[in-house]
User: Fold this.
Amino acid sequence: MLAFPPSDVIQAKDALGRASSDLQKQRKYSVVSLFSGCGGMDLGFKGGFIYNKKRFKKLPFEIIWANEINKAACNTYRKNIGSHIVEGDIWENINKIPEYADVVIGGFPCQDISVNGKGAGIKGKKSSLYRAMVEVIARQKPKIFVAENVKGLLMKHHRNALEQVLKDFSQLGYDVTYHLYHSADYGVAQTRERVMIVGTRNNVSPFSIPSPILTPEKYVTAFDILDDLSLIDENPNINHIWSRASRSPEQGDRRLLAERPGYTMRAECHGNIHWHYSQPRRISMREAARIQSFPDNFVFHSGLREMERQIGNAVPPVLAWHVAKAVLRSLEEI
Assistant:
């Protein structure tokens, strides 16, 4: 243990006190979270976690209300994020939402738009739920909103769907932009691509896309993020358990490459989650969570199948953190 001289101790305490005071004085921005899942995007907006030995500082966002229909995901959310999540259908709970929030965030369901989906687009039963997000924004008039979805929304055959989504948000009086993010560019050990649609109110500074922090040759690899878990026995307490599903051509059934980031984590892998790059097994749920950039102290409280779904559906917290910082810049420049 390091021994500090008394003067250094006093200075350190003074600095800590000033930092604490500054944090208390810092304005907090209220957030309503829709289609929250287990809380990946919410954790990113909150900040204050460690991933890949790097600390992602706490951000001044306070999530005052969240909603998710999946019971298991709500259980995980409550244990890791907070008890403010409301379980159930968004339309049945929409009148329970607080009258105002500075920010509205949400990853509206994407199964009908996903490359692996049925191609129903925004007219599909699940993806049409984006209209609930439109309704919430129309009621609350937040300063900024962030809507996340899959890369498939940008495909040519979904062009009309994208235009309709952008039109519906724009007609609420927002300056709306969208961008395709590659998670690995932001320090996530995964080649996950996701669309973020951001709307800013006319009295808010335009949203600026956060610059990538890594180039391909510097990406965080599967080896970087998983190697210390490779030889550890299964441990349910930390979600270090894995599927015994037989070899199959179904989605997700590939072996990771140690020298590159992990493949996109999928929610509906039906047990065919990726194989470890060096071990004769599929990756564990803790390893999958690391690929998604969840910190090790974020524990999933459900069975194996539900863990796969929660992890695969989540927005990588590290990517969400970088987007949240960009949102904060717009808010502070009002």
